[in-house]
Amino acid sequence: MSGLIVGFIVAAIALIAIAVGLVATPLLRHREQAKNSPIAATAAAVAIPAAAVLLYVFVSNFNWSAPTPAQAQAQVQAPNTESARAGALSDVVQQLEQRMAEQPGDIEGWLLLGRTYMQLQRFPDARRAYAAALAVAPVAAAKLGLAEADILIDRVNLGGEAGQLVEEVVAEQPDNPKALFYGGMVALFRGDEALARARWEKVLTLSPPDNVREILEPQIAALGAGSESVESTAATVEPAAESADNSAIAVNVSLDESLINRVSGNAIMFVLARRPGVPGPPIAAVRTVAASLPATLSISDANTMIAGNTLAGLSEVEIVARISASGGPIAGPGDLYGEAIWRVGAGRRVDIIVDQIVE
Asked: Could you tell me the domains of the chain?
């Protein structure tokens, strides 16, 4: 039983005792004038607590079985097998959803629900939970959770609200490893490679998990060497068959002559690789300047957005080249784009002509 419930019970008993005293004391005080006063006092002492319990049972809507955040978190961590863990998470989600329907002002409950959705990779649901938490109070955990869910839904959100929320958390908590991790991605999207490197180097000083270290170290090395990285400028590459990275696809991008006048000298182009027909964030992304077109660049597992989500082994990859009209990564009216499907057996090169306009 949680401390909250114990405290409630103690307070209820104290209030009932006061109520009994207020009723019974005058009756006992006048027992000489009314021979039935002791009987009435005894009846009141029994009836008032009984009435209080009955009224609470039938009128109260408090959910005594709802888990506290600590209990729910323990349920998430307890199972030892994947199937048991998945079942436990589903149970926790159901209980937390009911809890939050009854207690929408419980920010800790919303945060725990958001984290549970993230473990289940239900990113849109996680986003809604974190948004609800943020509506209760603008705490850093809610801001960062909402930003992370947005980024995992689509990495181009780094240039929108998600990026702004990450920057707020970095300013509030400059030693927050997760904020610095995503803060590096935000900086890289803006083209600030020095800031991205500084933030990621700081993450490495904060004892991050091994999988995070494995992601950051090669990216920091690439930035330090000035070589092509996740957000590098386009460069001519040799066909991937001659490269050590067997996931690399050489993408030759050109611009339709009729659209040349629509591209400014500092326009930004994003090249995205994803599974055909699969919604959500792309597998890999590269950012470059459109002024370099026509150009050939490489997109590979060095440019992946989520650890473990790779291009290697795919038989088909949809590649999109999009020139941003606003300079931001979020697609909008006026953007120019072209797309193509790369397939196994067609070589490690694909040609894209940017010849369409986002309406």
From this structure: 3-59 (no CATH), 240-357 (2.60.40.1120)
**Residues 150, 142: contact at Cβ < 8 Å?**
no
The Cα–Cα gap between 202 and 65 comes to 43
Mean pLDDT on 270-278: 87
Residue with tokens 């500092």: 266
Residue 232 contacts residue 286 (beta carbons within 8 Å): yes
Q: Which amino acid is at 75?
A: Q
Q: What is the pLDDT of residue 112?
A: 92
What's the mean pLDDT when you consider all of the chain? 75
Name the residue with tokens 């109260």: 60
What residue type is 119 in one-letter code?
Q
Is the Cα torsion angle 312, 315, 320, 321 positive or negative in sign?
A: positive
Taking the C-alpha atoms of residue 49 and residue 67, their distance in angstroms, rounded to an integer, is 27
CA distance 193 to 42: 80
Please, is 14 exposed, middle or buried when counting C-beta atoms within 10 Å of its C-beta (0-12, 13-18, 19+)? exposed
Of 116 and 309, more confident: 116
Count other C-beta atoms under 10 Å from residue 297's C-beta: 23
With b for 16 or more beta-carbon neighbours within 10 A and e for fewer, the 113-150 pattern comes to bbbbbbeeebbebbbbbbbbbbebeebbbbbbbbbbbb
Q: Are 325 and 228 a contacting pair, CB within 8 Å?
A: no
Question: What tens digit of pLDDT does each residue of 300-320 get?
Answer: 887 876 666 788 888 999 999
Provide the edge-to-edge strand list for the sheet that holds 249-255. Answer: 295-299, 249-255, 349-354
Residues 6+ apart with CB under 8 A from 103: 109
Closest CA to 295 of 254, 243, 240: 254
Measure the CA–CA gap between 172 and 194, rounded to whole angstroms: 21
Indicate if the pLDDT at residue 198 is higher than 80: yes
Measured CA to CA, the distance from residue 180 to residue 198 in angstroms comes to 9
